[in-house]
Structure formats: structure tokens, C-alpha cells
Amino acid sequence: MPYGIPWTSVIGYRCVKCGDVHTDAQYRPYCGLCGAEQPDERRAQATGLAIPGPTSGKKSTRELDEIARFITEHHGKAIRLWNYCVSHCELELRLRHSGGPCESKEPWLNTVIYCAATKYIQVPTSAWDSAMVIETKDTKYGIQYILVDVPSNVRIECSMLTLYFDVEPGY
User: Fold this and answer.
1) What would the pLDDT profile of 37-49 be if each residue is shown by its tens digit?
2) From residue 159, how far is each of 51, 83, 116 by CA, in Å?
3) For residue 9, what are the contacts with CB-CB under 8 A and spacing of at least 6?
4) pLDDT tens-digit profile of 98-147?
5) Which of 28, 101, 143, 171 has its CA 20 to 30 A from that of 77?
6) Can you give the residue ranges of every domain in the chain?
7) Is 100 helix (H, G, I), strand (E, B) or coil?
């Protein structure tokens, strides 16, 4: 998922040679199946190789009130550390919030809590039941966001906070 840029309405790309569909919103300059070189991303979208996906409604937000409200509404849901990139201090938490069991054939959907310029991380390595709240403090570099989940002993401090809704794959 291309974090830091607006959500795309593309859910995948079709190979120009073999027709294989990459069900991944991130553009690849080659086909994962046959290895064929692909046109650049803008041309792929213009020529109909991009496969539009369901993007009804809002897909991301950086509004603190909206993020805090969503997190509060989902207290008790499973949340876990999903990814951390050392070079850019990017942390990704996934909150599983909808869908059903495998028999229902409904996909699990996740919400990604994306933290950039992360200064401090204290999280368990396995999932926990969310009771997270967001605090802020002013620093000489701007607002610092502090995500705290006292029952699970979680504390994350970062300079940018974004919420991405209904992210797939939902595992």
C-alpha cells in the first residue's frame, strides 16, 4: 500500500502479455507470473490495464478527532503490530474489525493505523484487545501523537498519524 499518498481506486493491474491480474494496488514494472515488462503506472491506468476497485466512501483520514472516534468505537477488537520500517521510522498497526468466519465467505477487513516519524515504541508482539486512546503534546517540532493502551502496556509516540480504512488482504 502506498502510504503517504492518497488512497487509489485501483485494486490491481493486468499484465500486457499474459493477462495475469496482480491483485495488489502497488504498481509493478514487471509481471510476477511471466516476467513481461509493463508500461509505466500512469499509462497502465490510461490504457485500461488498471482494474478499478471498490472505493465508495472515505478511505483514509489524518483528522485527529475522526481517528480517535474510530479507535474508541473499536475498543475490544483485535489489534496488532503489523509492520515497522526502520529507515523511515514507519509503524503499522492493524485493527481487524469486520467480516465473518471463513464459512461466510465475507472478507475480513482491517483498518491500518499508520504512524510516521515514530520516536518510541512499546508494543506486544502478538495481538491484543484494543483499549487505545490518543494523546497529543506540543513540541518544538510540532504536535507529537501518543497512542496509549494502558491494559496492554502499549505506548507509541509519533509525529504523523493516518488511518486507512477497509484494507485488504484481511488476514
Assistant:
1) 766 655 555 555 5
2) 34, 17, 6
3) 52, 53, 55
4) 554 445 555 556 788 999 999 999 999 999 999 999 999 999 988 999 99
5) 143
6) 10-52, 60-167
7) coil
